[in-house]
Amino acid sequence: MTVATGARVSGKVLAAGAVAAGLVVMVVALLAAGGAPKPLPAGLTGAGAPVSWAVPVLRLLADLAAIATGGAVLAAAVLLPATDGKLGAQGLRACQDAAVAAGVWAVASIGGLLTTATVILGIPMSQLAARAGDAGSLLQVRALAAAVVLTALLAIVVSGCRTVAVARLALVLTAAALTGPLLTGHGAIERTAFWSLLATASLVVHVCAATTWIGGLGSLLRYGRDYLQAIETFSRLALVCAISIGITGLLTAEIHLGGHQDGWGLITQWVTTGYGALVFAKTVAFALLVWIGWWHRRATLPALAANQPAAFWRLAAGELLLMCATVGLAVALSRTP
């Protein structure tokens, strides 16, 4: 079933706004929470401020490109109509967009790999080639390198995708490329194997659910405006993602704040530490997104079904910008002690 589209926001304008929202929020959060790069003491050499700032910026670009890739692949594999297992015109368009986004993801990940290695080794970028062996031994660098390979493979697969089956394979590759770098994050440095495994597994579910939710909404705005069935399918999927994000976000934050050692009383750290303050800000943003989802179900979806789509698409565009701002918070959180 198709629906009237109403006034549309330019895809380029919305994409630029999404990147800007994420970047501004990330920079402000890093500065406010103590995760921003610090100037080197006099007489010491290191990666330098530009390279140190490039690490979170490239991480944000990679994350947003990954979300765009996942959303486009999700649209082709699940949301958009197909005939006898073959993608329709919009599905093919989604795959081509996914190939471009995956390319951006790979390039940003390569940049992230180089800058991360430089910062961890504490050397100027000009000396990285001479320390290639040391860089290659770093777990973070190896995880990013694996993600680059998977992302490049993903770009090749979706560029030639013509069927739903191949699009579903691309979904699996997207999840795999997302997972690798998460295995060397905060969760990997917990004190015990059990809590490390729990924190990492929770983070993987959290990121995959967020990618599905944000990318799926973006794909609706780009490809699914004329397909009511796609919107209804995504609405059900978004509810599952929201529940998963809420549970895993709370669990992961409490583990990182030490809740498994000192009890849930550490919830007070949400407003007394930089890391906790960012968790609190993400919680507020998440609550607002849940409210928007509830409002969609209560008001804008019925209006959309009645062929009055304007309110739904305006709210969805604002929702996407808020989601990308939350991605900026998440990147800042990953860089905050």
UniProtKB/TrEMBL annotation:
The keyword Chloroplast does not apply. Keywords: Membrane, Transmembrane, Transmembrane helix. Residues 229-333 form the Copper resistance protein D domain. Pfam families: CopD. The keyword Transmembrane applies. The chain crosses the membrane at residues 12-33, 53-80, 100-123, 143-162, 169-189, 195-221, 233-253, 273-294, 315-334. InterPro entries: Cu-R_CopD_dom (IPR008457). This is Copper resistance protein D.
